[in-house]
Amino acid sequence: MSPNLTYVAVVGVLFAAGVILLLERSLTRVLMGVVLLANGVNVLILAGGRYGGPPIVGTTPEGEMSDPLPQAMILTAIVITLGLTAFLLALAYRSWRLVGHDEVQDDIEDRRIVELAERDAGLEVEDVEDDDEGTS
Amino acid sequence: MPACAYPGRVLVLVGVHAVMAVVAPGLVRWLGRRALYVVALAPLATLCWALARTNDTVTESYAWVSQLGIGLDLRMATLNWLLVVLVAGIGAIVLAYSVRYFKPDQNGLGRYAAVFVAFAGAMFGLVVADNLLLLYVFWELTTVFSYLLIAQDPTRRTNRRAATQALLVTTLGGLAMLAGFVVLGESAGTYRWSELEANPPTGGHLAAAVVLILIGALSKSAIFPFSFWLPSAMAAPTPVSAYLHAAAMVKAGVFLVALLGPTLGADPPWRPLLLATGVLTMLLAGWTTLRQNDLKLMLAYGTVSQLGLLTAVFGGSSRNAGLAGAALVLAHALFKSTLFLVVGIIDVTTGTRDLRELSGLGRRAPALAAIAVLAGASMAGLPPFAGFVGKEAAFDAFLHGTGAADLTVLAGLVIGSTLTVAYTLRFLWGAFADKHQQQTRPTTIATDWLVWPGILAVAGLAVGAAAKPLGGSLDHYADLFPDVGAAYHLAVWHGFTGPLGLSVLVLVAGGALFHYRQRLPPIKLPFDGGTAYRRVMNGLDRAAVETTGATQRGSLPFYLGVILLALVAGLGGILIGSAPWPDDARAWDTSLQLVVAVGIVVAAVAAVRALRRLTAMILVGLSGYGVAVLFILHGAPDLALTQFLVETATIVMVVLVLRRLPAKFSERPIRTSRVGRIALGIGVGVVAAGMTYVAVGAREATPVSEIFPELAVTFGGGDNVVNVILVDIRAWDTMGEISVLVVAATGVASLIFRRTEALQRRRGVAGPGVGPSGQSIILQVVTRLVFHPVVLFSVFLLFSGHNAPGGGFAGGLVAGLALTVRYLAGGQAELTAAAPIDAGIVLGAGLLVSVGTGVLAMLAGGQVLQTAIVDRHLPVLGDVHLVTSIFFDIGVYLVVVGLILDILRSLGAEIDRQEVAAG
Questions:
Q1: Do A24 and B668 make contact, defined as CB atoms within 8 angstroms?
Q2: Which of B126, B524, B638, B858 has the smallest CB count inside 10 Å?
Q3: Which among A9, A43, A122 is the nearest to B545, CB-wise?
Q4: What's the DSSP call for residue B549?
């Protein structure tokens, strides 16, 4: 099958735009990145299927139908993206309610471990406690 | 003991321990510490059962995981019998002793009783397991229970640390042992020891198996270099030490050596390894014992020393050495647990275990002192105690042995025994002698407490006296070894022999060593394997921190960047290197595609550059509509319909939330990282485009969907192939998808509705103060007018979807958008009027209907989700063509409606309410 260059270009641009937004810290931008990426993936899948008329028996002769299988996959993907978008939105809103912005912060615990590694120290959790009473 | 000849099964006895462990906490709550007497019945029953079968061989076998060669194969021969008697007998006595050891209101006594009896059961299982893998299971069970018993008081750091140390060291050994078992079992084709014994495997890998198994055995029995965990484990309550660290668990390693010795003893690494580590451990630990001031630590190091002796003796791998080892195992268990119990009594009644503080205890507690002297005599090897009988046998085995280096080993044993005599004397002197004016005044020692160590001490004497009949029984075990020279028999008196001379020498030298103890050079031995353990643990800790610090930076863009870089580098490399680039390509199928594509590209690029949230979202939506147009042009009306609806729903949803967030995005980070992001984005875009190009070009095979149109009509009963794929051919995918939707909706609701009572509002009960104020009446009236036709249309889409564009997804989205319009026009009140039902119920009902369709098909005798086609002529309605998959699609429809309803209630109404509440 020969590739459709228009689709190839659309896939490239949607992926690039999606990734740039995905790498931002603002959850709203991340969300839009996800939507763009999802559209890019859908076009990618579409490009893999044959071009033709609607795959409805009786409307289009069987030999001229577009490939229905990628379409079913894309349909599933579209609706899942809707659910994911809603979830990300709820996350962004919750983050805004809690800390006043919707930015993804660095994990504080992870930062602490990075600092330990830079100091060349171990965790030594046991040594932090002070309840040593000796043996019985 | 005829009363004990009940027909008990081994498996039942193990089960009795398990049941007792389960009920023990309840018993303790009911009866207090006296419940321990009841708990002791489990090991007591086992003891009784074993004593009635002194010279029998009991075998049982039950299928378990036969594919892996694991069966519940149980076997009690002479050696197992000896260990069963020790494990059960001392277990029962120590439990009874514990009644007085603990205070009546002791915390965690129920836990103690349960874990203790569970341990006894696991130990019992270990010594009667005939299957190596089953043995491993019990082996690790004892490790786990010992961990819990050492950390009896988990609030103490010492306890936790000691428990962890014991756990790590013995588990590590256990894993090595498992590997050895697997090598052994796989090369022989069986994991049953009795079969392996009959047909010993041969081959080069046997040496590896032997070394691995010995690592397990030596670590469990605290042999050098694994000795350090045992003295640390003295943090456990003294009854636990008496049982686990004298009689039972540490004997597991020795038991394994004894069990495997007759068969594997002739293999090259076996004998030298055991002799060397055993003697070395005996000497090092014996010397260290002399330097201890804590009575319990003295016993701990003494135990390590004695375990070294046992290992070396069994390592001798001859008939007489085996016999000596068996006798010594029995003797050691009896005297060492007695001494531990004595130390427990001293500790509780005087408040100290330090021999520098104790003085004059012998005169104040003569009975206790007498018991300790009886046990000490056995430990030192005085006739006619059990310890003497065993040691004589050991001396004889090595004196008349034929193996290489036997005399060197004998010298080591003699020196080690001298140290034993010296530290025994020092122990007795330290605990009971008059040393200084400050007399120790113990509290009263109850007789029903003292009786338990008393029984054990007297047993040590009785075993010595009954050496001949006992030896007759133990001979069955010893005879398993390949015969070397004349058979030795246990007895107190053999006449004036070489071993007797050695015994006398040991006693005299030990006495002298004790007498001149002050003049001993203060050599601190590099005995401590604990340093290595700490280094390894610290190294692991550091390595974990470094690895985590290097890889887990805690930054989401960093993680995504790494993943995407890997994508670009990996896939990009393949694309450049080896991908089959197609020769021909089309610019487009119709030139309209190019026009739409330009629109999509412009919108997407502008969305990236937008500074305002709303602008960005509208641009993203525009590019989405563009994709929908591409779908139409491609010949995919279902996709286009769904994409249009979803994009619209997304925009509404985003706007609902965005009106609460600041209009502009926050400041972007520094420029350098921005350039990097754009570069990475373009890189991924190029790779994705290349991937599309190559993947599409590489498609040569006939698509599976070639036959779908025909299948859709004949099996699916529908003309719309895409819809039939969704509800029939690939219905499982759709089932998974709607489940994801339900989960997502639940996630949204739980993020927005923070309290359970707030969920009431999701049912549509309007919150106070959120009226339809500020909304257009005309809009409301118009939406009410169009609402019902739109919903009707959605139902039409649902039902016609099987044969024309539409279906459950599209229909559900249309109905959802109708609800959205009602909400936008009139707020929560209008939404409640339009859909007075909980979103959760709609979601659940949808999932139920879909799953139910599948289940019904199965109940009707078909496959899950199989479609049935019913064609009937009905009056009035005419010809009806009913396909059962429509019910599946109804479920999909309901789930989608539920999702939108949930979003409106959460992201719309509840956010409104929270904003109003927050002012």
A1: yes
A2: B524
A3: A122
A4: H
Which site among A28, A59, A82 would you substitute to test the B interface, given the most B Cβ atoms closer than 10 Å to its Cβ?
Answer: A82
Residue keyed to tokens 């939108």: B900
Alpha helices in B610-670 (DSSP H): 613-634, 637-658
Domain boundaries in chain A? 5-127
- Determine whether the interchain pair A83/B744 forms a contact, defined as Cβ–Cβ distance below 8 Å: yes
Interface confidence: ipTM more than 0.90: no
What is the per-residue pLDDT for B4? 64
Does B150 score more than 70 pLDDT?
yes
Helices and strands (H, E) in chain A, number of each type: 5, 0
Nearest by CB: A57 against B696, B699, B713: B713
**pLDDT tens, position by position, A31-69:** 999 999 999 999 999 998 888 888 888 888 888 889 999
> Are A94 and B542 within 8 A, CB to CB?
no
- Tell me which of A14, A39, A75, A116 to substitute to probe the interface with B (most B C-beta atoms closer than 10 Å): A75
pLDDT at A129: 38
Query: Can you read off the two tokens belonging to residue B88?
Result: 């059960």
Secondary-structure class of domain A5-127 per CATH: mainly alpha
Q: How far are the Cα atoms of B151, B250, B516, B565, B658 from residue B163, in angstroms, in the given order?
A: 6, 15, 37, 45, 55
Q: Tell me how close the Cα of A134 comes to any Cα of chain B, in angstroms.
A: 6
From chain B, the residues in CB contact with A128 under 8 A are: none
**Contact status, residue B318 vs residue B224, Cβ threshold 8 Å:** no
B882 beta partners: B870
Point out which residues pair with B869 in neighbouring strands. B883
Give the residue from chain B lying closest to A60, CA to CA. Answer: B635
User: Do residues B430 and B438 make contact, with C-beta atoms less than 8 angstroms apart?
Assistant: no
Closest alpha carbon to B119 in B234, B247, B255: B247
In degrees to the nearest 10, what's the CA dihedral of B35, B36, B41, B47?
A: 180
Q: Which of B537, B623, B632, B692 to mutate to test the interface with A (most CBs of A within 10 A)?
A: B692
pTM: 0.69
Q: At what angle do helices B386-399 and B406-432 cross, to 10 degrees?
A: 160
